[in-house]
Amino acid sequence: MKVVITQFVSLDGVSQGPGSATEDPSGGFTRGGWLVPYLDDAFVRQTSDWLDLADGLLFGRRTYEAFARDWPEIAEPDPFTVRMNALPKYVVSTTLEQADWNPTTVLRGDTVGALREAPGRELQVHGSARLAASLLDAGLVDTVRLAVAPVIVGQGRRLLTGRTDAGLQLREQGATPSGIALLEYAVSGPAPLADYQGVTPPA
Fold first, then answer.
1. Closest CA to 6 of 133, 110, 147
2. How far apart are CA 137 and CA 139, in angstroms?
3. CATH code, 176
């Protein structure tokens, strides 16, 4: 399976608490719900199409516990409920003692690489900014898929704060009527570097 980081982020890179004030107030975060004013039908269709590609969901402990609390309580006809609850879920954690949002597998140690080699389409990372950064550092990410809201949040955990650089190739791009930029990148290896030599004038 391809490991795909699928994330909602603000223009200043915040990924914490996009859906509500109570989604993730950890660390004193008080600006949750910053994505909601920009939700429209085009965004729902696109994110539903992305979820259709998943054969599994991969989480860190904090995001898993929030999703496991909320998603079983979200009633149909929400377009994501059935799939979010039914897809296989994997949690990377050394401290999680109970995982009741079935089907869930708790991963101990370096096992994401083995999942990546397993047959299937996409293993999608939702939320879990720290996990996403560590997977990028480890060279285990194939695709970065972002929905960038036109807002500066000003506080909160940011995505892509790992220690290792990475080069990306833009594969798809678009925007919703409300202004959310939809971007999909393939991870292409180390970030390329070069010195600017000036612009060569046309012959």
1. 147
2. 6
3. 3.40.430.10
CB neighbours of 15 closer than 8 A, spacing ≥ 6?
Answer: 7, 8, 9, 127, 129, 156, 157, 158, 159
How far, in Å, CA of 84 to CA of 72, rounded? Answer: 9
When divided into structural domains, the chain yields a total of 1
Do 82 and 76 touch, CB atoms closer than 8 A?
A: yes
10-residue stretch averages of pLDDT, the chain, 203 residues long: 97 94 92 97 96 96 92 88 96 90 89 92 94 93 97 94 91 98 96 90 77
Inside any domain, residue 201: no
Question: What six digits make up the tokens of 2?
Answer: 């391809």
Cis peptide before 25 (omega within 30 of 0): no
* Structure-token pair, residue 4: 């795909």
Whether 78 and 146 have beta carbons less than 8 Å apart is answered as no
Query: What whole-number distance in Å separates Cα of residue 96 and Cα of residue 117?
Result: 24
Length of the chain: 203
Q: Which structural domain, as residue segments, surrounds residue 163?
A: 2-189
Supply 133's token pair: 């950064």
Residue 203 domain-assigned? Answer: no
The answer to whether 64 touches 89, Cβ cutoff 8 Å, is yes
On whether the pTM is more than 0.85, the answer is: yes
